[in-house]
Amino acid sequence: MDHNWIILRERGLARRSSDDIAALxxxxxxxxxxxxxxxxPTERDLAVDYDxxxxxxxxxxxxxxxxxxxxxxxxxxxYINTARRDPLxxxxxxxxxxxxxxxxxxxxxxxxxxxxxxxxxxxxSQLSAIEKAHEKANAAGDMPEFEHWDTExxxxxFECSRNDLLREIHNILRVLRNQPPWFEMxxxxxxxxxRQHYCEEHDRLVVALRSRLPEEAERAMRAHLVTVQKNMLGx
Length: 235
Hints:
The structure is a single chain. By secondary structure, this protein is mainly alpha-helical. It has two domains: 3-85, Winged helix-like DNA-binding domain superfamily/Winged helix DNA-binding domain (Arc Repressor Mutant, subunit A, Orthogonal Bundle); 98-233, GntR ligand-binding domain-like (Four Helix Bundle (Hemerythrin (Met), subunit A), Up-down Bundle), CATH 1.20.120. The chain is 72% helix and 3% strand. Strand 1 and strand 2 (77-80) form a beta hairpin. The longest helix is centred in the middle third of the chain and has 22 residues, at 100-121. The protein is elongated, with a radius of gyration of 20 Å.
């Protein structure tokens, strides 16, 4: 059982779903945990290992079988479909198990740099799109709506960077941010007061972008992420 999950569970912040178990199984399969035999432990054993109900493991198996990752043989067990292995798919599968803390550390490395690039490289129409996303986030009436426009604003910053590789790396991060553990943590940490604070920080970012000030944009993004990290992780 992974250390980050134990901490979250002890704090009462998490409960594993079948999606979570599927992500952990993908990660373990990609890491070669059962490569020697190609056979996974039984549902009962995995339920004990992951501290979930057996039917939660069964639903995770169902999903991975639909994806072509696993094959189940009645009376013989569940096996990895090794013919399907792909290096990039393996990397992505391992990333699906990343903790929110790891995610925030990577965001702190990449997003301030992307904001600096955007201040220099964004077109007028791209800056207008960022301002529109910011306005929509300001007007959001609930957490899901705000989360949608908040995510859109950050995505647009990466698009404005004019760096295709950086943009695609962020697309991977965006997929990870849509995983249940991340969304649930954001939901628990959300409040209208915090939403207003996020919008104020976004406003400083937008002003820096519009003014073509890369250093100011970088600082504004970093300050915003520090706030998000503190609200979500308590540090």
